[in-house]
Design goal:
The complex is a heterodimer of chains A (368) and B (339). Chain A has 368 residues and is of the alpha/beta class. Chain A has a domain at 111-290: Rossmann fold (3-Layer(aba) Sandwich), CATH 3.40.50. Chain A contains ten helices and 15 strands. Chain A has helices at residues 4-22, 29-43, 45-53, 74-77, 110-126, 149-161, 180-193, 203-213, 241-252, 358-363, and strands spanning 70-71, 90-93, 104-107, 134-138, 173-174, 177-178, 197-202, 225-229, 259-263, 272-274, 285-287, 292-297, 310-317, 326-336, 339-345. In chain A, strands 1, 4, 7, 8, 9, 10, 11, 12, 13, 14 and 15 form an eleven-stranded mixed sheet that branches. In chain A, strands 2-3 form a two-stranded antiparallel ribbon. The radius of gyration of chain A is 21 Å and the shape is globular. Chain A starts with a helix and ends in a 5-residue tail after the last helix. Chain B is α/β, with parallel strands linked by helices and 339 residues long. Chain B folds into two domains: 2-157, Aldehyde Dehydrogenase, Chain A, domain 1, CATH 3.40.605.10; 161-321, 3-Layer(aba) Sandwich (Aldehyde Dehydrogenase, Chain A, domain 2). Chain B contains twelve helices and twelve strands. Chain B has helices at 2-16, 22-29, 33-42, 50-60, 77-88, 102-111, 138-147, 172-184, 203-223, 231-247, 284-291, 306-312, and strands spanning 66-70, 92-95, 116-118, 131-135, 153-157, 161-166, 194-200, 249-252, 257-260, 275-281, 298-303, 318-321. Chain B has a seven-stranded mixed sheet with strand order 8-9-10-7-6-11-12, sandwiched between helices. In chain B, strands 3-2-1-4-5 form a five-stranded parallel sheet, sandwiched between helices. The longest helix of chain B has 21 residues, at 203-223. Chain B is globular and about 60 Å long. The two termini of chain B are 21 Å apart. The chains are: A alpha/beta (368), B alpha/beta (339).
Chain lengths: 368, 339
């Protein structure tokens, strides 16, 4: 199999990131997006079919917004890759649902993913750090969960922003257990060294931490910050975002603005961040990297909706070199000044009958 | 049993004078006039046998009073719900669905049975004895359970789905003809409505079945057009079609769509409003494994081979021939999950 075109496109994607990091003029977004779409249509019959069904001639594509988006459900049903499985370097899987299907995103060259993740993570989580931080992850290590894209990203952050530390002092979830003692020891050492901490965690892990420590506090060193991501997925009690943030700020002794939400998904190679650590933008408004565009679209026509109106997120991600350069999520978003707001999953239709709704099926107990 | 027979007679009377009712049912349900006609004339259980009624009475149990809460159900479901309640109790209070009250009201009025009363503003908390039979979504049932008074038994009849098994020996054209009718009535919004068809054999056979089903559904699209589809469901349908187009194959008709799953793919559920997910399975065991994560929601299995269907179906599921999935005998609730 000829991988040269894929490699050349990865080079162009990484060059995009490098230009951003160096503050140089950026390559043309639409040009690379359309080249990726052409490459993917050539290599993936399913995407070519989707383009034909949407009456899109990829040879004539000029604008990223015209690329037919691949629904995220596709990742559950079939392989979305321009290459054969023997070239898989990593395979990320979405978290399971009660109907069992897990999405799969295979990558041949994860260095592109890592370069993008670190560059934009640095921009919104770590750009002011003058020394390496004490990075802890309230989640399992990539050794324990090798198919977690979040774990992979956190590992890249540990390498890029963190001081040297043993794995058991960095990855603080083992099985279902959060190692509060190890967290306490790591905080104590960071305090002694006056080293800021970067806490990377899922929302449900943070709720577990709060539940585990009760009224206790874990004051973090000056300059520390928390990255919080994901929903609760039935793994903990649900806590409204502002309440969780306020409680974490109290427990960690940090400003609420130092608690930064990240939005990402297994089907993407780019992430989006709240900007509160380094700007006046309020919580709930996410920034996108220049190599990704979040376009709210009408759920039926898939046409972009006017700024300020709610649509379904179509995301064009130039780092998805070998999979799907444009995806269609089920999340509602709205463009606002300085970024976009994330408004949760699109609601289902009001019930008109007793045929089970997909959301209802998802909400039922999983089989034993 | 005579009381139940009287309810059935009332339903017949409603059907006989349906001309004046159909427009209102069309308005409230969003179904096309032809679909309302189809539902009233072919999918309302107007000729139960004594044996079926005896089973219904047996399953109904005994209660001093039953409050029936109809919500988000297919409109003809009111007959079975009221018949069950009347079999169980000497006093039945009926709260029709607010959005879709026409048939239930007409049935209660036609019954002219002092023991069956409309209670449009019934408050769950005001029921202090007997049973509440609630039809609808899981969350509706949970809400009623939470608000019910102590000592009042709540029997929930939740949402569900149907599944079809097309055996290796089936005539694909005949099977498609039967399944198409099961899909079309109520625009696939019933809890017995088939949403998935497993085709015994390879992908080529599943493809051939999908083609046959496409032809039959297209025929129905003309004879019994699909009614109003809410915007969210239209979007879900478009998304399903795009997903299946990429994953393997989608066939899109005037008022329906069929997705053919790639070999070995996990299950996805097609949205209602005439969308059918077709999956090839080399064995019944393979189909059962695919179905396992959503098994609890399966309340009907239709097949050309009822013995095979019985082996595939959960123990509570109703098993029938294709084309009869939406016509279960009047012998108890359609949803037998509560035992």
């Amino acid at each position: 199999m000829d991988l040269a075109r894929s490699s050349a496109l990865h080079e162009r994607a990484r060059a995009f990131v490098a230009s951003f990091e160096r503050g140089e003029p950026l390559p043309d977004f639409d040009e690379l997006a359309c080249d990726l779409a052409r490459f993917q249509a050539e290599r993936i019959e399913g995407f070519a079919r989707l383009c034909r069904a949407r009456a899109v001639d990829v040879a004539r594509l000029r604008r990223a917004e015209d690329i037919p988006p691949v629904p995220t459900d596709v990742f559950k049903l079939t392989r979305v890759a321009t290459f054969e499985p023997e070239h898989d370097a990593v395979v990320f899987r979405t978290s399971g649902t009660t109907i069992g299907a897990r999405g799969m995103h295979a990558m041949r060259d994860p260095s592109t993913y890592e370069a993008a993740a670190v560059a934009f993570g640095r921009r919104w989580l770590a750009r002011d750090l003058t020394q390496r931080a004490a990075v802890v992850v309230l989640g399992p290590s990539p050794e324990v969960a090798p198919d977690s894209s979040l774990g992979h990203m956190c590992a890249a952050f540990v390498r890029a922003f963190g001081e040297e530390a043993p794995a058991d002092e960095t990855w603080l979830v083992d099985g279902d257990t959060l190692d509060v003692v190890a967290l306490d020891m790591r905080i104590s050492r960071a305090l002694r060294e006056s080293r800021p901490m970067l806490v990377l965690a899922t929302s449900f892990a943070l709720v577990h931490l709060l539940d585990a420590i009760g009224e206790a506090t874990f004051e973090l060193p000056r300059g520390s910050r928390v990255m919080q991501t994901g929903g609760f997925k039935g793994k903990s009690r649900e806590v409204p975002a502002d309440e969780l943030r306020a409680e974490l700020a109290r427990v960690f002794g940090i400003d609420e603005r130092a608690i930064v939400a990240e939005y990402g998904m297994t089907e993407l190679s780019s992430q989006f961040y709240e900007q509160t650590l380094f700007s006046d933008v309020e919580h709930g408004v996410y920034a996108e990297p220049p190599w990704a565009r979040v376009i709210p679209v009408h759920p039926e026509t898939l046409e972009p909706v006017p700024d300020g109106e709610i649509g379904i997120a179509k995301i064009v991600d130039l780092m998805n070199v070998d999979s799907a350069v444009a995806i269609l999520t089920q999340d509602q978003v709205r463009r606002v000044p300085n970024g976009f707001e994330l408004l949760g999953r699109a609601p289902g239709a009001p019930p008109r009958g007793c045929s089970i709704a997909i959301d209802e099926l998802l909400g039922r107990d999983a089989p034993a | 049993m005579d009381d139940v027979r009287a309810v059935v007679r009332a339903a017949r009377a409603v059907v006989d004078r349906r001309t004046s009712l159909v427009p209102a049912i069309v308005e409230s349900t969003g179904l096309s006039p032809a679909n309302v006609e189809l539902a009233l004339t072919r999918h309302l259980e107007l000729d139960p046998t004594d044996e079926e009624l005896r089973r219904l009475v047996e399953r109904a149990g005994d209660a001093p009073e039953v409050a029936v809460i109809l919500s988000a159900n297919v409109f003809v479901g009111a007959l079975r719900a009221i018949a069950l309640a009347r079999a169980a109790a000497p006093l039945v209070l009926v709260r029709p669905s607010r959005r879709d009250p026409v048939f239930a009201r007409a049935l209660v009025e036609a019954a002219a049975d002092p023991a069956i009363r409309l209670a449009e503003d019934l408050d769950v908390a005001s029921v202090t004895r007997g049973e509440i039979h609630v039809y609808g979504r899981d969350e509706t049932i949970a809400d009623v359970r939470a608000r019910a008074s102590e000592g009042v038994r709540v029997r929930g009849h939740g949402a569900g789905m149907g599944v079809a098994w097309i055996s290796r020996s089936a005539s694909l054209e005949e099977a498609a003809r039967g399944l198409a009718e099961d899909v079309v009535v109520f625009d696939q919004r019933g809890c017995l409505s088939p949403r998935v068809a497993f085709v015994e054999g390879d992908l080529a056979r599943a493809d051939a079945f999908a083609d046959a089903l496409h032809t039959e559904l297209e025929r129905f699209d003309l004879a019994v057009p699909r009614g109003d589809v809410p915007a969210e469901e239209r979007a879900a349908g478009d998304r399903y079609v795009a997903t299946m187009t990429y994953a393997c194959r989608a066939l899109v008709g005037t008022g329906h769509a069929i997705g053919v799953a790639p070999p070995g793919a996990p299950m996805v559920l097609a949205p209602p409003y005439r969308h059918v997910h077709v999956a090839a399975c080399e064995t019944r065991e393979a189909a059962a494994a695919l179905l396992e994560p959503m098994r609890r929601s399966v309340i009907a299995v239709g097949s050309d081979d009822e013995e095979a269907a019985r082996a595939l179906a959960p123990p509570w599921a109703r098993v029938s021939a294709l084309g009869r999935m939406q016509r279960p005998p009047l012998d108890g609730p359609v949803d037998l999950r509560e035992g």
